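dumping these here so i dont lose them again. two proteins, back to back, each one seq then structure tokens. dont judge the mess
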Amino acid sequence: MNLETQISKIIEANGAALYDTEIVTEFDETIYRVLITKVGGIKLDLCASISHELSPFLDVNPPMSQAYRLEISSPGIERKLVKPVHFKNAIGEKIKVKLGAGDKLKGILKSADNNGIVVETKAGEESYDYGDLNTCKTYFDWN
């Protein structure tokens, strides 16, 4: 069983789901960020509970060889879409897409499968393979 699967089991035991993990450096500090989701949203108490359970597990099964800080958080209302499951769970939401050629588009995510996505734009429905996508994220109209 790989580390991500084990982390996922700890999170699921707390009533949430693993969204993604990432390693980032901020202000010369390495952060191992564990992003979680839950229907109805993520509360700070849930992040704290998961952190208290995950921290000793990661002390025994470290995600990297260097020193790091563990951070548990929600991916947010405007979140990165990376894995096919992220896209599948975002069907019906507004997304921003940067394509490999540098083109950008906005639209509604109409469908997603293991090969690619369909986005409804002002020009109509457009299909893209995951390999054509550079970065994607959901977005919220704050107006």
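---- next one ----
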Amino acid sequence: MKTYQFTVVIESDEEAFHAFVPALPGCHTFGMTVDEARANIAEAMELHIESMQEDGESIPIEREPLFITRLSVPVHA
């Protein structure tokens, strides 16, 4: 068994938390709490990767360093 590690983004929407994996397009889920979203995305990742393997697709590898930041930009209206 091989272990894969990917960056996961969990963001709040109006009613729940949306979790997705930028390196695995189409791999996303929701949860009512952050913990539920985290558990759901872990399961979604496993199923997504298994599906890719069954289809003979290459599993992407995230390279280091990875930077996630928040930027503010002024916009003139």
